[in-house]
Structures are given as C-alpha cells and as structure tokens.
Amino acid sequence: MKVDVLTETVIAAPCERVAAYAADPSQAPEWYENIDSVTWQTPPPVAAGSRIAFTARFLGRRLAYTYEVTAYEPGRRLVMRTSQGPFPMETTYTWEPYGEDTARTRMTLRNRGEPSGFASLAAPAMSAAMRRAQSKDLARLKALLERPA
After folding, report:
1. DSSP 3-state of 15
2. Total domain count, the chain
3. Confidence category of residue 102, pLDDT binned at 50, 70, 90
4. Most exposed: 81, 91, 96, 118, by fewest CB within 10 Å?
C-alpha cells in the first residue's frame, strides 16, 4: 500500500517570505516537531542536487535519512526524495499567493512513498500519523511566520 498524504494551510505572509523560510532545510527543526537535526552534505543554499541529512523521531522510532533535492523553483515548488532511510519517500512543498491579497500564501506539503516489507503492513497507521504530524507542522510554521516581528 502506498502512503500519500497532502496537507495545506494559508499563512498571512507573502509567498516569497514563506517559501524562503520553508525551503531552507536549516529551518526545519524550528517548525517540524519531529525533526531533531539537519546536516548539509552539499554546500547551501538549497538547489537541485542538494543533499541534506535529517535525524527525526516518528512513531516512537529514531530515523536517519538523506534527502536529495530533485526540483527547486524558488518561491513556487521544492521536491526532495530520500536516497537513504527506512523507505523511499518524496516530499513536495508548493507555495502560491492566496486570494486577491498578495500578503497571504497557500502552502501545501505532500509526502508520498511506498513502504515495503513490514512497513507496508503499517501503511494505513503511518498515513494517519503523517497527516497529524504534517498538520501540526504547518500550524507551527504558520504561527512562526505570522507572529509580529
């Protein structure tokens, strides 16, 4: 069974600001509850081909995995895929101005992959846990970017 979880939020901040912050892997521990650390394996800033190692906690387990950026359109879209880790995963962020007001941004966060072996049996529970985590993470990002300077 595949895992495919899409969440979104609207953030009261301009698209360029939201995208610049969210697309910087160094910021991930600030807004991802489960990410403990980030280590650049290639020099920053983020670009197609960048490799970033993450250490996280998920469903009570410590995970270490490396993402490779496969597509990056600054201010619009970022796609990363795991090149190592518990199972192949692709994460996609998109940003777009929301409504008539250019001071708001719709951000989507999508994680999809296909666990194999024992992990495939847990795919439904994994999807539900990912949806909860992603919703919390986007709420945290929203709070960080909407607070007064």
Report:
1. helix
2. 1
3. confident
4. 118
